[in-house]
Amino acid sequence: MKLPRLRRKGPPAAPLTSTQSGWLGAAILAAQLPQALHVPIWIAVLGCALVALRLWLASRDRARPGASVARIPSWALVIFAVAIAALLRASYGYLLGRDPSVAFLYVLVGVKFLESRTVRDGTLLVCLAAFLAITPFLFGQSPLAAAAALPALLLLGATLAALAARTPLAVAAAAPRRAVAQAGAMMLQGLPIALLLFVLFPRIAGPLWGVPQGARATTGLSDTMSPGMIAELTQEDSVALRADFAGAPPPPAQRYWRGPVMSRFDGRTWSASFVRPDGGLPTAGVRSVEYTITLEPNDRPWLFALELPSALPEMSTDTSPGDVVVSRDRQLVARRPVGQVLRYRQRSQLADSHPALPRDAMENLRLPPEANPRTRALAAQLRERHADDAAYVEAVLAHFRDNPFTYTLAPGTIHARDPVDGFLFESRRGFCEHYASAFAVLLRAAGIPARVVTGYQGGEFNRRGNYLIVRQSDAHAWVEAIVDGQWRRFDPTGAVSPLRIESGISGALPDALELPLFARLDAGFLKDAQLLFDALNHAWRRNVVGFDATRQRDVWRWLRLDPALPGQAVGAIAIAGAAWMGVVLGWLAWRRGRRERSAVLWSEVCARLARAGLPREAHEGPLAYTTRASRRWPDYAIAFGAIGEAYARLRYASVPAREREALLATLKRAVEVLPAPVALRGGA
Prior knowledge:
Elements: H1 18-32, H2 41-63, H3 74-92, H4 98-115, H5 119-134, H6 143-164, H7 168-173, H8 176-200, E1 224-225, H9 229-233, E2 239-245, E3 256-265, E4 270-272, E5 288-295, E6 305-306, E7 314-315, E8 324-326, E9 332-334, E10 342-349, E11 353-355, H10 360-363, H11 373-385, H12 389-402, E12 406-407, H13 419-427, E13 429-430, H14 432-445, E14 450-457, E15 460-462, E16 467-471, E17 475-483, E18 486-490, H15 492-496, H16 498-503, H17 505-508, H18 524-545, H19 549-558, H20 566-611, H21 622-632, H22 637-652, H23 657-673, H24 677-683
Parallel strand pairs: 12-13
Antiparallel strand pairs: 1-4, 2-5, 2-16, 3-4, 3-6, 3-14, 5-10, 7-10, 8-9, 11-18, 14-17, 15-16, 17-18
Helix pairs in contact: 1-2, 1-4, 1-5, 1-6, 2-4, 3-4, 4-5, 5-6, 6-8, 8-20, 11-14, 13-14, 20-22, 20-23, 20-24, 21-22, 22-23
């Protein structure tokens, strides 16, 4: 006969109390709020609304104890989650990626909270909320992101304490102030170990996982340039890059940050040629400058360097976008777009010329056959008077200086078909892209190879952090032309507005109010506060986010550890971690002994009275027991009263440390007043 298998059933899961539900709701909201800036507004509102709905249902249940528990069916929540996934797919155009996945998790945490009924569900929800709390670091690793995650971590720790409460004493220990204080104390105790692991644990070359970020709107330079494009960037005061120099930064006139180089021209728009990674690096002749670039994400493959890069960048192993090459146009190009903050060390020569290759001339002479005829005629006239290339270039620059050209962000309407003609002969008002385009066309029309270089010019020195800030408003375009076998840099904008090169765009424009606030030279208190915050943010990125394997090896050498033997670092971590744990455990034992001193004294009182013939009943508290002892021995009523009052407050009340010491001293003196059990028996 086959006996039926008996399934062992564990104890039923404990239901969530109203206090525990409140802790869960607070922890989830603290995890959601920092991420609300990175998700669509309807997702942010919906996720928080789900949490609020669950808390409202819980309060409704408390108000109607006899009614059935309000509950949303699980099948309805599943349908709701699937519908949200479909909406996210339609909104983003894809579902498997960083942005839609984080948004989906944002809502799923609220859905899980709606169906949570037991402590086991609450524990799982804490894990999901903890993962949600770290997702803002997928979008940025600023000190604000770290500060925003701190409340969530504290509340998650306090929530775990509330979920673990099973007895009245444990519930009292999970009171809001005590639970948060306990979670904070545990975080502080673990902080030295976290710092130790951060400094000594071997760095991994690359992130732990790769998350496809998908398409997103970005501001910055493009690989094309047409009239008005760079002028639009002046309305952006966001940071493009920051530069830390080994010594003093170069003067403003030498701060040309080389970016996309454009050789193709269709009569209106300049565009970059195909990137050919066969460029050389200058080796001698001009003084080099060393600096470190912190490049903001731009979803473009190019990197920026002062002209001319004399070495390949030394990339941070944690943020490298792949191999970096120097193109034939002397541009630094990465294998992958820059999708996160990138730090790299760079060396450049502060030169305004470099050798040209024989094949460079042909591809930088092409012009549309019938475009801009008046510009061609002007080039022919100037060429007749200046046969020498260098003299012709100076004549073109003099044409810009001597005629009433205006440097402005509002050039007005320019001839749509022949924009260079319209600029040179009609409006004579333009921004750097207008001057660079017209200058390059005039040179090509005269048979001088020329191309447009875009990038940034200048930068603002932040004295609070001793580094240079280059903003999107510093975007600039200039020209390179082959003269005497050398590519030479010419900036026609400087011929019209020298202040643009020496003082930046804010000093060049007659009305600086045309620029955004932080792009102005003097923006008052708000600008000073922004520079202070930027310095703090840059220090965080440089010393925390930018702590790569190279800097870690330097720390190892300073600690006399061999980088080739990671076992030494692991051993150092183990020894230091064990030492710190010993310190923490010893301090906790000492503190527990101080706190339990009152329990020891109370036990001594109970034992002494029991031997004197008055044992304490199991149900009897300290106040009731000492009151009974006072009636038995009225001569010592004052001592018994002090003992009962002091111990009750020490055991059950939350008192400050200074008052606790005074109560403990009172308890000790009162116990010393009591005679021995034999004397008590004789005096009864």
